[in-house]
Design goal:
The chain is 66% helix and 5% strand. It is mainly α and 174 residues long. It has one domain (29-173): Arc Repressor Mutant, subunit A, CATH 1.10.10. The longest helix has 26 residues, at 2-27. Residues 2-7 and 20-26 have low confidence and may be disordered.
């Protein structure tokens, strides 16, 4: 009987390893769209003074194509994170205070719902969802990631960015 339990546990372990090798870790990656969107929003937060910022200025500072950034504006506006104004003094600005915009909001507006495996958000895709311990691990992992990203606001990132820029300037000045 003990031998059968060891074999059963070994099979479950092999299944778990197969799951890991089927791109689960690949699904944790945030695409260029998400990374550049965070940089765009961070730039707007660092330069947050109630006045619009030109996209070409952001593109220059961030070394990202203005055309690419313009594609990111649409989902960020749809999510209510960015607003725009036209005219001679037009541009883009944060639609909310940087303290009220989380990394989770930004990433999800560009990437869709956070999920490392499909069964976490859509249990019906797997007949084993109700009894799968691996799914429980993925669910707990996602809760931790979502909680962390929710706790990281643009305001916190902007402060971190300004501190890093200050350190970099001091190093160059020496």
């Amino acid at each position: 009987m003990r031998c059968l339990n060891i074999i059963s546990n070994s099979i479950k372990l092999i299944e778990l390893v197969e799951i890991l090798n089927l791109g689960v870790l690949e699904m944790l990656r945030i695409s260029t769209k998400g990374r550049y969107g965070v940089r765009l929003m961070l730039d707007l937060a660092v330069n947050y003074n109630g006045r619009p910022v030109l996209l070409r200025e952001v593109a220059k500072r961030q070394k990202i194509s203005e055309k690419y950034l313009s594609q990111l504006i649409i989902p960020l506006k749809t999510a209510g994170l960015i607003s725009s104004s036209r005219g001679a003094h037009g541009g883009y600005l944060l639609a909310k205070d940087p303290r009220n915009i989380s990394l989770k909001e930004i990433v999800e507006s560009l990437e869709g719902p956070l999920s490392i495996v499909e069964c976490v958000t859509t249990p019906s895709v797997c007949s084993q969802s109700g009894t799968c311990v691996a799914r429980d691990v993925w669910t707990a992992t996602m809760k931790q990631i979502a909680g962390f990203l929710s706790s990281m606001t643009l305001d916190k990132l902007a402060k971190m960015e300004k501190k890093k820029q200050g350190i970099a300037r001091k190093r160059k000045g020496k």
